[in-house]
Amino acid sequence: MKRMGMMFRAKANKALDRAEDPRETLDYSYQKQLELLQKVRRGVADVATSRKRLELQLGQLRNQSGKLEEQGRKALALGREDLAREALSRRAALQQQVTDLETQHQTLQSEEEKLTLAAQRLQAKVDAFRTRKETIKATYTAAQAQTRIGEAFSGISEEMGDVGLAIQRAEDKTAQLQARAGAIDELMASGALEDPSGMAKDDIQAELDRLSGGSDVELELQRMKAELAGSSPQQAIESGQSGQPGQSAPQAQPAQQPENPQRSGPDFGKH
């Protein structure tokens, strides 16, 4: 089971590696960094808001403290020491709150400064990553285009391989049809196959065609012999025609006998 699980994970990893596009991965990483930067910025804004609220509260408490101090002075001026004591007591309580809020304000202000610095650094990293991302994407796209062009020229790409196979099959079928047509022509010429049009050659015409072809061969042979012997091709052809087999020598015409002269002489019949 462990082996099967390992094989399944290996095949799945290989399939994912083939399906993975580095450009999409880079874009996804950049999107995540932008989301993180946005969260940091929202954190800075929240801390700044809290700091501002503390500043408003501090302003109100300080105003109340100043008002109580003024009331205590008036009470003392009027001889109301008890009222002055009460006003100073309330002022002391407010002063404690002001001190606590000032401490929180300093903490928030320090946290705001840290988050602001972190946001600035993260912004710089995101900008640098974006520049590098676009460079890598452009380089990857160019390399992919060069690879496809090289595969197209070499014929090893899948698309060009399919085209090459189609061309090879077409050429094979064409050669097969040509061979079949030539074989049929030879069989029809030899008489092994009959012409369905009913215009097949008879035996006499076939024999005459064969003899004509043989005569052409003999004439060509005589011409070549004449060229080798130094005689003119026309003389060789004439001599070849006179010596071809199957042709009888011209018979000598019999000498013309002179007409018998009529005997001249006395007419013996006449007495």
Automatic annotation (TrEMBL):
Biased composition (Low complexity): 239-258
Chain residue ranges for the region called Disordered: 226-271
Residues of the signal peptide: none
Coiled-coil positions: 44-139
Swiss-Prot/TrEMBL keywords: Coiled coil
PANTHER family, per the entry: MEMBRANE-ASSOCIATED PROTEIN VIPP1, CHLOROPLASTIC, PHAGE SHOCK PROTEIN A
Sequence similarity: Belongs to the PspA/Vipp/IM30 family.
Name recorded for this polypeptide: PspA/IM30 family protein
Gene source species: Streptomyces zingiberis
